[in-house]
Amino acid sequence: MDGSAVAELEAAERVVMRWDSSSASASAGGGGGDEPMLFDGGGDRAEAERFLRAVDDLRRLAPPSPAAVGSPRRLSSSGSSAGGAGSGAVQVAMARLEDEFRHVLSSRALDVEIEALADLSSLSINSDRSNSASSADLPPPDEDDSVSSTIGRRSSAYRSLRSIREIDLLPDDAVADLRAIASRMAAAGYGRECAQVYASVRKPAVDAALRRLGVERLSIGDVQRLEWDALEAKIRRWIRAARAAVRGVFASERRLCFHIFHDLPISSSTISAAAAATPATHDTPFAEAVKGAALQLFGFAEAISIGRRSPEKLFKIIDLHDALSDLLPDVSDIFAASKAAESIYVQAVEIRSRLADAVRGILSEFENAVLRDPPKTAVPGGTIHPLTRYVMNYSSLICDYKATLSELIVSRPSASARLAAEGNELAPSLAEMELPELENQSPLAAHIVWIIVVLEHNLEGKASLYKDLALSHLFMMNNVHYIVHKVKDSPDLWGMIGDDYLKRLTGKFTVAATNYQRTAWLKILNCLRDEGLHVSGGFSSGISKSALRERFKSFNAAFEEAHRVQSGWCVPDNQLREELRISIAEKLLPAYRSFLGRFRHHIENGKHPELYIKYSVEDLEIAVGDLFEGVPPSPHNRRRSHG
């Protein structure tokens, strides 16, 4: 080494040694927390620039030997004995730079409003990624889009991610300082130590950001022990937090790491053979900083995906699946390109797959639950069964989620699923249950039709609980009518099951209504027939008055019983109730009017006609208006035609 080089080396050593972090009597200031820092963000940058030039000179004039590369904190205390002339000063420089790197990361971080990220409209799950604007539609980047000349322009890969909102975690001048420090440490073989410092500072910051977003530390067991109401609320919060965490926190951390470590050699020459198998890259600091938080974040979704499957969970799990699907392209952009972090993306993909399996399993479980719902006690008055309301509302919600479910449900109800309840004495015979197969019917549509088929057969089992056959028919009429109207009220549901099956359901309703009227009113109408009233021979007028009196008494008794009982029956749909009353009145009133017109004079010419002709046509019409209200009739509603 010539004289000028020696002089340069000595000058560089003097600059560096003034900032010996390991010395208790550093010439530039006291020790402990009051020790001055080179990169404190103040106005005087001359000393910091002088120090960096000295480090560059040391590296140029006295490059460290492999034996001298290691922990700068440990090696700096051994002076130049570790690696020859200038090597001790290099260790001092690396120790100082390590302290400066930590100081800049810790003290100059910006106070970011993390919570506001969860409310960004661009983070909505409803955004259609396929319709996203092209990069040509995006606003142009700022004119001055560089942190400093040492970093260059920011990667356009980040700018093109429309859904990602990157936050400035540190000011540009701080990032430039960090890059300057990291490049010197990496060039001297201390890249791994620099990366470790980075991860040790940023990891707590990332963890704190997720806590502020409401991401809790819950084990799989903790999640699975939660009541569903509490878990449902946590799913909603998780979806908002996950969007902000991925598109805001993780994306910003990756950008910061990129600007500091891009193209720098992170691995040191003394790494172990095991570490050499997976050498560190410029993504390693990022992975080490966020991996724990990312695993914690996605661990919640994983716990949901492997939890107990029950029908009430279906739609929230679809929401969770859709949220994760919506995030996966961003998770891929942030994590998949990095060998150090790609396992996070792989885990997210696997969790989405398990959520899809859970959705399919829950739908199958729902079908079986409908089939196996036991007939316990008949609902009062033959009204709509709670199961019918639940199943049809559930089916309507399925249609609301048809975009996702059509992708996930790829097979029709299988023979094994349709026979799953065979042997259950409470379930109807599955051999009699037919699944209509319509042209161009999707697998999801086939499942919805199958659910309604199963519901029909379950209702038939429940109808058999009624001792009164007419009430059994009324029950089926009410429930099938409800099914038909729920289908008609939902264009998506109607489109799923198709016109042919809707006609079949409508036909079943008509049959039930007809059977009810025939069973409930035929006996009453038969009282108004002429058969058995005429006599022949002798001096008779041709009408048996005793038979006629008995006929009027039979009619009165039958009608009063029907009125008393059927007023307590229930037809909850207003229009159907009125139509049914009109239909009954159209059969009953003309028949009674005609019978009364033909035979009342035979009764009125005898004794106590009021005992036999108790009602006028108007009285019957009023009484029919009492039917199906679900409450016993009031006494004043029955009018006597004779007083």
Describe this structure as you would to a colleague.
The chain is mainly alpha-helical and about 650 residues long. Helix 1 runs parallel beside helix 4 and helix 17 runs parallel beside helix 19. The radius of gyration is 42 Å and the shape is rod-shaped.
Element string (H = helix, E = strand): HHHHHHHHHHHHHHHHHHHHHH
Rg over C-alpha atoms, rounded to the nearest angstrom: 42 Å
The mean pLDDT is 81
> Termini, distance in Å?
138 Å
Q: Structural class, from secondary structure content?
A: mainly alpha
Outline the secondary-structure elements.
Elements (H helix, E strand, L loop, with lengths): L2 H15 L28 H16 L10 H4 L11 H21 L48 H4 L12 H16 L3 H22 L7 H6 L2 H34 L11 H5 L6 H22 L8 H23 L5 H31 L13 H15 L1 H7 L6 H4 L24 H21 L5 H21 L1 H36 L18 H23 L6 H31 L12 H8 L19
Helix pairs in contact: 1-2, 1-4, 2-6, 4-6, 4-7, 6-7, 6-9, 7-9, 7-11, 9-11, 9-12, 11-13, 12-13, 13-17, 14-17, 14-18, 17-18, 17-19, 18-19, 19-20, 19-21, 21-22
Question: What's this, in brief?
Answer:
This protein is mostly helical and 643 residues long. It has helices at 3-17, 46-61, 72-75, 87-107, 156-159, 172-187, 191-212, 220-225, 228-261, 273-277, 284-305, 314-336, 342-372, 386-400, 402-408, 415-418, 443-463, 469-489, 491-526, 545-567, 574-604, 617-624.
Question: Could you name the key traits of this structure?
Answer:
rod-shaped, 643 residues, 60% helix, disordered C terminus, mainly alpha, single chain
